[in-house]
Design a protein that fits this description.
globular, Aspartate Aminotransferase, domain 2, binds pyridoxal-5'-phosphate, alpha/beta
Amino acid sequence: MVDGLHDLNAFLSAVNERTAVIWICNPNNPTGNLIPSEELIEFLSKVPENILVVLDEAYFEYVTDPHHTDSIRLLDQFPNILVLRTFSKAYGLAAFRLGYAIGSPQLLQN
Ligand SMILES: *Cc1c(COP(=O)(O)O)cnc(C)c1O
């Protein structure tokens, strides 16, 4: 991490034939940093399609940046992403551990 931000270029250079999953907390916990949508899209377009990119968006409901692209809108373009969200933070239901995953049909049918 650099200044509380994921270093996406470092992630890309660390990818090799053994890489199966890249896990990104966005917004990040505990720093709260949000990856700008253009940066995330550029990153996703460079990640090989056979690698699963998990977008852990536990703090999604706290994003106030009007330019932020909802990652669900990226599913068509990048079927290898899995979006994780939870009721823990926005609804104060941490004790329930109730969350959900949103992915492309291609991914979820596997
Ligand atoms: C709180 C949190 C979780 C856990 O969510 P649960 O639904 O309570 O399991 C996962 N990821 C991040 C980044 C969190 O902040």
